[in-house]
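Checked the freezer inventory, then went back to the computational side. Two predictions to log before the end of the day. The first one is the construct we discussed on Monday; recording sequence and tokens without edits.
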Amino acid sequence: MSFGKEAHGEAVASIDRQSLIGQSWRETSRLAVIMAVALVGLCVLVYAALADALRPTRAIRGGLERLAAGDLSARLPPFDLAELRQLAMCSTTWPVALRRRSRNAKR
């Protein structure tokens, strides 16, 4: 090493490859744990979103099962989604049509 025009000594640098490899594996292991936790969190969020999105289909299935069992007083609740709202409105007219047909069939 020199400072100004005078030499003050020598600096020797060496690389310990085993130490670098060990450090790399530790960092990789930490990153793998973080990614695994993030993946689990993402799966939980997707499950929650799908469960919420599919909740109306359970109500529809329940109402249709009641209609299939002969309960013509079964009605579907109103839904926020336009397509499901139309389906719920149709479900109120099906039992009326079924009653008419069954009365006409009995005559």
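The second is the one RB wanted added to the comparison set:
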Amino acid sequence: MTDAVCGASGGPLAGPARLVTTWAARQAMAQVQNAAAVRWWHDVGGDAVTFGSDAHDPAGVASRFLDDAHLAEAHGFRPGRDPHDFWARID
């Protein structure tokens, strides 16, 4: 996970969102880092998460998306109605 907090471009969630990266060369380490960061973001009141990929080849783009989507759901975030929406906090 990157340390970036992304600014929303408008819509129902106009505040920052935590970026979850969906590919990393050290995938096991990335999953631990993503879990800690998403848990922290939820604990400090973060409203949303979004996903991105830092893959350096097309085959790696979003290769861990399902794992990271489950991780976000486990920490209280759900997808919006539109596939391009941020995943909003549900509690």
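For RB: Residues 1-13 have pLDDT under 50 and may be disordered. Helices lie at 27-43, 65-74. Let me know if you want it refolded.
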